[in-house]
Design a protein that fits this description.
Pathway: Carbohydrate degradation; pentose phosphate pathway; D-ribulose 5-phosphate from D-glucose 6-phosphate (oxidative stage): step 2/3. This protein is α/β, with parallel strands linked by helices. The protein has eight helices and ten strands. Bound molecules: 6-phosphogluconic acid.
């Protein structure tokens, strides 16, 4: 079914609204199941939401957090999504959560992916919630159109994590596969700005996830939009 689209009057309202919604869902999951598992994105859009979410009062010891994708750089590097989480989500009470990383520290992803996947399977999967971003090229996570690794990452029998290389990005990426993201109990996609609104319209009309990878996670998702 088509995604539900929620429009916000501002990006601040989107950050506040999504942080509050996700916090409520995490509380419910922890109350009902004793654990909640969530994947969050990197990039420039989610910072304010992650910071706001990390300040929420809830039983963070019972929450497992991972990333939808990671840039293959040391976690001290500015482009590291793990660094972004340390400076936003984990800057407050949410620091008590368990984090399942995607970056393994080896020179190339291939050297770490088995251990990264094992760590995810032991702690972070199946996902209850996946929060995602989208690029104007209709990528999500690190599922970039035309990238090396995309076919594998979109396959029904894809591994948990896949290494991605694309000329558009300065470093190798590692992404949760589409089936893992699609398997989340709920998906929330944060989209801001006119260019991405137009990209979303193109994605809704697209049929081939190879051209519009966001398609692989769009059905049944909730899109949160602000200009
Ligand atoms: O590592 C990342 O950058 C994200 O996980 C990525 O998938 C992001 O959500 C989109 O590229 C949108 O990025 P912006 O929010 O910066 O536009």
């Amino acid at each position: 079914m088509s995604p539900k689209i929620i429009e916000y009057p501002s990006r601040e309202a989107l950050s506040e609204g999504v942080a509050g919604l996700v916090a409520r869902r995490l509380r419910t999951l922890v109350d009902e199941r004793g654990i909640a598992r969530i994947a969050v994105p990197g990039g420039t859009t989610p910072g304010a939401m992650l910071e706001r979410l990390g300040r929420e009062r809830l039983d963070w010891e019972k929450v497992v957090v991972t990333l939808t994708d990671e840039r293959w750089v040391p976690t001290t590097e500015p482009r590291s999504n793990q660094k972004l989480l340390a400076e936003t989500l984990f800057a407050g009470p949410a620091a008590a959560a368990t984090f399942s990383p995607l970056y393994g520290g080896t020179a190339e992803p291939a050297g770490s992916l088995p251990a990264v996947a094992a760590g995810l399977e032991q702690t972070a999967l199946p996902l209850d919630i996946a929060v995602l971003g989208m690029g104007a090229d209709m990528h999500t996570a690190s599922l970039f159109p035309g990238s090396v690794g995309l076919h594998e990452a979109l396959a029904e029998d894809a591994p948990v994590v896949v290494a991605i290389r694309t000329g558009d990005q300065p470093e190798p990426r590692v992404t949760l596969s589409a089936r893992v993201l699609r398997g989340a109990g709920e998906r929330h996609i944060l989209i801001t700005g006119t260019a991405k609104r137009e990209a979303l319209q193109r994605a809704l009309a697209a049929t081939d996830p190879l051209q519009a990878p966001i398609r692989a996670v769009l059905e049944g998702a909730t899109v949160h939009f602000a200009e």
